[in-house]
Design goal:
The chain is mostly beta strands. It has a single domain, classed as Beta Barrel (Porin). Helices cover about 0% and strands about 65% of the residues. The chain has no helices and eleven strands. Strands 1-2-3-4-5-6-7-8-9-10-11 form an eleven-stranded antiparallel β-sheet, with no helix packed on it. A hairpin with a 3-residue loop joins strand 10 and strand 11.
């Protein structure tokens, strides 16, 4: 939802599900999240996001609660095809995590991006290809516990 020309905000309702195999059942919780994006100048944006502020309790899981998350960041667009992103994130179960990322578009059809973090997800990198209204993202990240994790996204934008 837009509030004037510089502020956009949104809310979301989330249904969380945790399965313990066919024999053991599962646990569920209902929570929400909200975010705001502020266009500070033509080149600079700031955003804030809050997820699960009440630390929803999982059904049938005793007193186990799901973690909350708060994050904020800045995006600086410099030049026609480049951006730098800086962020900070706090999960209620972990230490504060600092993040830095970049995106560079070599053309209207091809771009690359990458980032580093002080958390368990040490770094990410990827490429994006645009074909008409479809975006194809190929990426990988490195997690200290899981190792490399490849990712693929297909995005439809009708604008």
């Amino acid at each position: 939802m837009k509030f004037g020309s510089a502020v956009t905000a949104g809310v979301r309702l989330d249904y969380l599900s945790k399965q313990f195999g066919n024999e053991y059942g599962g646990a569920y919780a209902l929570t929400g999240s909200a975010g705001i994006l502020i266009q500070l100048t033509r080149e600079l944006r700031s955003g804030f996001y809050l997820h699960n502020p009440q630390r929803a309790k999982l059904s049938g899981a005793g007193s186990q609660r799901t973690p909350s998350l708060v994050s904020g960041g800045l995006q600086w667009n410099f030049g026609k095809h480049a951006e730098l992103n800086l962020g900070v994130e706090k999960n209620s179960n972990e230490k504060v995590r600092l993040q830095c990322g970049f995106k560079y578009c070599m053309s209207d059809q091809f771009g690359m991006y990458g980032g580093v973090s002080s958390g368990k997800d040490a770094f990410h990198f990827g490429f994006q290809f645009k074909w008409n209204v479809l975006y194809f993202d190929f990426a990988s990240g490195y997690n200290q516990l899981l190792g490399f994790s490849p990712k693929f996204s297909l995005i439809f934008k009708n604008k």
